[in-house]
Amino acid sequence: MTTETFEFQVEARQLLQLMIHSVYSNKDVFLRELVSNASDALDKLRLASLREDAPDADVSDLHIELETDPDVRTLTVRDNGIGMSYEEVTRLIGTIANSGTAKFLEELREAKDAAGADGLIGRFGVGFYSGFMVADEVTLVTRHAGETQGTRWTSKGEGTYTLERLDEAPQGTSVTLHLKPADSDDQLHDYTSEWKIREIVKKYSDFITWPVRLLPRPGEDDAAEAREAETLNSMKALWARPRDEVSDEEYHELYKHIGHDWRDPLETIRLQAEGTFEYQALLFVPAHAPHDLFTQGYQRGVQLYVKRVFIMDDCEELLPPYLRFVKGVVDAQDLSLNVSREILQQDRHIRMIQRRLTKKVLSTVKDLRTSAPERYATFWREFGAVLKEGLVTDSDNRDAILAASSFESTHDADAPTALNAYVERMKDGQDAVYYLTGESRGAIENSPHMEAFRAKGVEVLLLTDAVDEVWVDAVGEYDGKPLRSVAKGEIDLSGTEDDKNEEEKEKQGEEYAGLLGWMSEHLAEEVKEVRLSSRLTVSPACVVSDAGELTPALENMYRAMGQEVPGAKRILELNPEHQLVKSLNRAWTDRADRAELTETAELLHALAVLAEGGRPKDPSRFVQLMADRLERTV
Ligand code: ADP
To answer: Bridge partners of 543?
Structure first.
C-alpha cells in the first residue's frame, strides 16, 4: 500500500507547535486525553450495537489497553471501539474543526508570559494532539467497526503527516507514542514506567466506565504471556457513589472528561432522586464560558446514561437553553436503552428531571452569591448574559432567575447589585425600579436621561447586554414595583424630596405652551410631541420613547433579525431651566416667524439625538446648520 504525505491545516500546525514546545507544565494529562478519546470510542460502539447499527462489530469485551516498551521507549493506548474511517482520520485528526481554536491561538500569541499562556491552554481540550507533549512521533492505526480496511496515520508533529490504507487492522484505534527522553526538570516523566502509568490512570481516569488494562510486558519473564492484564481503574460511576466517598479531585477529573476542559469547574452539583422514577445527576458549572456559547449549533454538555450505559452526549432535553453552559451526567434507571431523541422530547419523566435540575442549578447559583461571593462574581461575569435569556423564555422560574441575577448599577461602579438590594435602597416615595439600556456603561452613565436621577441620587440599573432590552419588558415588575426605563415615558421623581411644586410647574407650562405647540408642529416629521422635561438638569434637550414603545436599540435588533418594525416617532423634551431653551422661548415670543428659530429647533432636536448616541436623520444638513451658527459666533 502506498503512503501519502499531507500538510496540516495552518491552525492545526500552530497548535502542534504549541504542544511540542509545550508551555503546559503538567504533561501527565496527555494520557487522560487519550484514554478519554478511547472511552468515547467504546461508548459510541456500544450505542451503535444497541441500535443495531453495527451488526458485524465485536462488542464482547470492550476495553482500553495500555502497553509499554522501555527498550524502544513506546507507550501504546489501544481501544476496540468504533474506530475511524480513512476519511474521518483526515477530517478529525488533520484539521481543527473547532471554530474557537483560531481565536484561542490568537489570544495565546498575545499572552506575554508563560503563566498567562498556561492559563489559556488550560481553557482548551486539545485532546489527541497533547500526545506531542511527550512524544516526538505518534502513530495511529485504526479501523472503523464494520469496515474491512484500516488506516495508519503517522506524524512527527512538524507540519506534515502520512496516511496509508491497510488491508488488515484490528477493530478500533491504537495510538503509539514514541516517547521523548524523560526530563524531570521539564516534568517529563518516564511514561514507560508501569508505576507512573498506574498513578496517572488512577488519578485522572479512575471513573472511566470501561476497564483500562495494563498489559504485561512480553519477555519480561517467561510467564508473561500467561499473566493477566491488570485493570487500573475502579470503573465506579461517580454519580452513583455517596458524596463522602468521592473527593473533589475525582469530581473535577470527571468534569474535565465530559466538559473537554482542562480546568477545574466552578461548582459541582449533585442530585439523587429515588422513588418511582430514579435517577442520579452530577452537574458542573464551568469556570469559563466557551467561545461559542452564543453561536448556533453550540454543543451542550449534559450526557444521558441509562442504567450506567452511555446513551448520548448533548442531551438538550435535560436542561433549558439558558442553562446550556452546564455540563454533567444524568443517569436514569427507568428509560429504555433504545431511547431516541424523539421519545425524549415527549417523555414526562424527562420533563420532570428538567424541572428539578433547573431549580437546583438556579438555587445553587443563588446560594453562591452569599456563600462564595467571588465565585458568584466569576459566574455572573461568564454566564450572566446567558442566564438572563431565561427571564424571557422561562416564566415559571422567573423569580428564581432574578434571585440568581445581578445588575450593574449607579450605586457601585465595581460591584453589580441584586434586585432585592436595590429595592432596600430605594428612596422614600420612589415607586419604580429604574433602569437604562445601552451599549456600554460609559455611554449610559453620560446619557442626558440620567441627569435628574444623578442630581437626586436615585439609583439606576445600567443594562448593557443585548438580552436586557427584551427581558425588562417581559418581566415588567419586581416585588410589586414596575421596572421603568429612564428613557421612556414621563418621569415623575416628585415623590422623592425637594422637587418643584405643582404650582411652579404649572406656571412653567403656561410660559412654554406657545413654543412647545409651535415646535411640535414644526418637527412633526421627526417627533410626535415636544414637552418640558423633568429629567434634565444640565442638557438643553433629550429624546425619549413612549412608555410602551420599543427603544431604538430594540428596533434595530428586530430589524437585524429580519423583522419588520414601524419606526416609532419619539418625544422631544426640553429643559426649561437651560439658558438656550429660555432664550429660544423669549425669541419665539418676540417674533415667531424668524427663519433662524426653525433652524434652532431643528438643531436642538439633532443635539438631543446625538446626546443619546444616535445619529441625526440628515447629518449633512445638521453639519451645515451648525457651521453657519459657528461662523457667526467666531
Ligand atoms: P476531542 O476529543 O476534543 O474531540 P481530539 O483531537 O482528541 O478532540 O479528537 C478529535 C476527534 O477524533 C474525536 O472527536 C473523535 O471523533 C476522533 N477520535 C480521537 N480518538 C479516537 C479514538 N480512539 N477512536 C475513535 N475516534 C477517535
So the answer is: 572
Tell me the mean pLDDT in the region 116-133.
68
pLDDT at 318: 95
The two domains 3-235 and 239-378 share their CATH topology (first three levels equal): no
Whether 611 is in the pocket of ligand 1, judged by its Cβ within 6 Å, is no
Confidence grade of residue 331 (pLDDT, cut at 50, 70, 90) = very high
Q: How many whole angstroms separate alpha carbon 259 and alpha carbon 302?
A: 9
Give me the chain's average pLDDT, please: 88
Highest mean pLDDT among 306-315, 411-420, 544-553: 411-420
State if residue 416 touches ligand 1 by the CB under 6 angstroms criterion.
Answer: no
What pLDDT is attached to residue 503? 81
- Region 516-535: mean pLDDT is 93
**pLDDT value for 347:** 87
- Atom 3 (ligand 1) nearest CA: 127
CATH 2.40.50.140 fits domain 3-235: no
> How remote is the CA of residue 27 from the centroid of ligand 1, in Å?
19
Residue 101: pLDDT band (50, 70, 90) is low
CA of 37 relative to ligand 1 center, distance in Å: 5
Residue 49 has pLDDT above 60, yes or no: yes
Determine the atom of ligand 1 nearest the C-alpha atom of 77: 23
Cα distance between residue 417 and residue 50, in whole Å: 51
Check if the beta carbon of residue 459 is closer than 8 Å to that of residue 436.
no
The CATH number for 239-378, chosen from 3.30.1330.10, 1.25.40.20, 3.30.230.80, 3.40.50.970, is 3.30.230.80
Span from the CA of 38 to the centroid of ligand 1 (angstroms): 8
Residues 45 and 209: their CA atoms lie apart, in Å, by 14
Count of helix runs (H) and strand runs (E) in the chain: 21, 23
Instruction: Specify the residue for cell string 451645515.
Output: 624
Indicate the fold that domain 504-545+567-634 takes in CATH.
Four Helix Bundle (Hemerythrin (Met), subunit A) (1.20.120)
- Ligand 1 contact via 131 beta carbon (within 6 Å): no
Q: Are 435 and 417 in contact (CB under 8 A)?
A: no
Q: 554 CB under 6 A from ligand 1?
A: no
Could you tell me which residues are beta bridge partners of residue 624? none
The reported pLDDT for the residue numbered 394 is 96
pLDDT bracket for residue 124 (50, 70, 90): low
Q: Provide the pLDDT for residue 558.
A: 76
| Separation of alpha carbons 303 and 507, rounded Å | 69
Domain ranges of the chain: 3-235, 239-378, 407-499, 504-545+567-634
* Choice between 406 and 93, residue whose per-residue pLDDT is larger: 406
Q: How far is CA 143 from the centre of its chain?
A: 36
Residue 260 CB–ligand 1 contact under 6 Å:
yes
Range 111-117 average pLDDT: 57
Right CATH for 407-499 from 3.40.50.720, 1.10.10.10, 3.40.50.11260, 3.40.720.10: 3.40.50.11260
